[in-house]
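Box 3.1 A note on notation
Throughout this textbook, protein chains are presented in two layers. The first layer is the amino acid sequence; the second is a token string describing backbone geometry. Keep the layers aligned when reading.
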Amino acid sequence: MHHHGYLWTGPKQRFDQEGLRRPPHRDPPPAGSKPELIQRYRDILADFPVSDLPPLETAHWLMKPQAMIRGTWDEPKRAAEWLGERLTEYAPRFASPSDRDTTRITALINSAAEHLGRGGDLSVGLYLERPAFLSLALVTCSPNRTSPDIPCPTC
């Protein structure tokens, strides 16, 4: 088991485009479907895997290209440390002063290590100054507990 780290930051309006954050349905539209539905399916099929937007389900990061992985760790503690480094790096830009609290960040890092150690995934989202958003994710891989059918992008 190992863990992959992902980071996205960008305009909140872009993050809110949920349709772009959903993978295509496993089954294509049935024959005879409306052309708009077929085209929408094709667009999602082509766009979702290469879009840098965070997926709605954390495990779906594994469907994205390997180049989007910011780090890979065998130890949950190391993955949680990466999370802490990113939170510390972005803390001066957090929109909410309470999100900058070092005690809160430390508690989040400790709980992340425990959660990853049990095979879970973790997503953290925070508003930044100017309507921007920071999304951090740690995804357990080989296999993922919630989506074991998604292969590891690095294997």
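The mean pLDDT is 94. The CA atoms of residues 21 and 56 lie 6 Å apart.
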